[in-house]
Amino acid sequence: MQTTQTPTMTAQLPQVHEPRNDGTALDLDWVASVQANTSAIERRAASLPGRRSVKKDYQAAWLCKAVSLMDLTTLSGDDSEGRVRRLCAKARQPVSQGLLEAIGMEGLTTGAVCVYHDMVETAVDALRGTNIPVAAVSTGFPAGLSPFHLRIQEIRDSVAAGAQEIDIVISRRHVLTGNWQALYDEMCEMRAACGDAHVKAILATGELGTLRNVARASLVCMMAGADFIKTSTGKEPVNATLPVTLTMIRAIRDYRDRTGVKVGYKPAGGISKAKDSLVYLSMIKDELGDRWLQPDLFRFGASSLLGDIERQLEHHVTGSYSANWRHAIG
Fold first, then answer.
1. DSSP designation for 18
2. What is the dihedral of CA 305, 307, 311, 314, to 10 degrees?
3. pLDDT (tens digit, 9 = 90+) per residue, 223-264?
4. Topology of domain 28-327, CATH
5. Residue 108: is it exposed, middle or buried by C-beta count within 10 angstroms (0-12/13-18/19+)?
6. Residues carrying an active site annotation
7. pTM
8. How many degrees, rounded to 5, is the angle at CA 242 between CA 91 and CA 203?
9. How confident is residue 13, by pLDDT bands cut at 50, 70 and 90?
10. How far apart are the first and last CA of the chain?
11. Where are the domains of the chain?
12. Could you tell me which of 162, 150, 168, 156 has the C-alpha nearest to residue 119?
């Protein structure tokens, strides 16, 4: 992420949007040809944290970029309307106004707010008048094992309630048994139920066994029309990792090279430190290019990450770290 010019930290540019991914016919020969060299992927991923370093104004600019790519999320059993409204207020003003003025950044918001279906209407109302979309987790999140007709109806209900993005979970058993036709058909039906809402396919990569399974599942979901592929629900023992990310974004690159269609990527779960967000952004820039550093093609599924980014920005401005309680999420 090195650059020769001082980054300009001004108001965010208007969001751009790629055409929807209409998908392709299921190509089982292409799926079967996909392999993953695990040792090589792990070596490449392990080398990344030491390959890129940004400091001072550059770091502040990249951290603001990370905030703009964040799906601010609450997915707890004790979620309430008050919590969701506070979260939406945080999405509107993710960093204190004083810090933004000090670094010359105006108009910064998060990429989206992500909630359960029951909280979609509350979030939509709280974000009215902004361009911040509401994303709903759906299809029996996080296990994805409720009856299929109920999963489809949940998608439709969330769209009707105002969700502009739907995060669906795939049936892991289809991947583990190599039943790619079943995964493709399931994903196609879910994509159709989303209508105009963008669909993010959650692979739950920590439960897929191998990186080859991750690569093949990524490809099948894109063939079936996924607008984003996402690592995890955040509820698995292992969530987003750099090797998984490298595997998935290379599948995205392969799909783009063959079809001309750009599909988005969302790592979720386990990304809580500002320095980690910089590593992910550098990987995206290296592997996919600058176009993927926009919220229509990249998101962080994280909330605790925002607090650490705020602390780093305050240190940049004042030279001192503040206490965590000064940067509450909502």
1. P
2. 110
3. 999 999 999 998 888 899 999 999 999 999 999 999 999 999
4. TIM Barrel (3.20.20)
5. buried
6. 167, 230, 266
7. 0.92
8. 70
9. very low
10. 31
11. 28-327
12. 162
Distance CA 184, CA 20 (A): 17
Q: Is 264 helix (H, G, I), strand (E, B) or coil?
A: strand
Q: How confident is the model at residue 142 (pLDDT cuts 50, 70, 90)?
A: very high
Element (H, E) at 149: helix 148-160
Query: Are residues 42 and 243 in contact, defined by beta-carbon separation less than 8 angstroms?
Result: yes
The token pair that represents 298 in the structure block:
């990249």
Q: What is the mean pLDDT of residues 154-165?
A: 98
pLDDT tens-digit map of 274-304: 999 999 999 999 999 999 999 999 999 987 8
Return d(Cα 38, Cα 33) in angstroms, integer: 16
Q: Which strands, in side-by-side order, build the sheet including 134-137?
A: 264-266, 228-230, 198-202, 165-169, 134-137, 112-115, 70-73, 300-301
Amino acid at 152: I
Task: Find residue 166's DSSP bridge partners.
Answer: 136, 199
Crossing angle of helices 242-259 and 274-287, rounded to 10°: 30
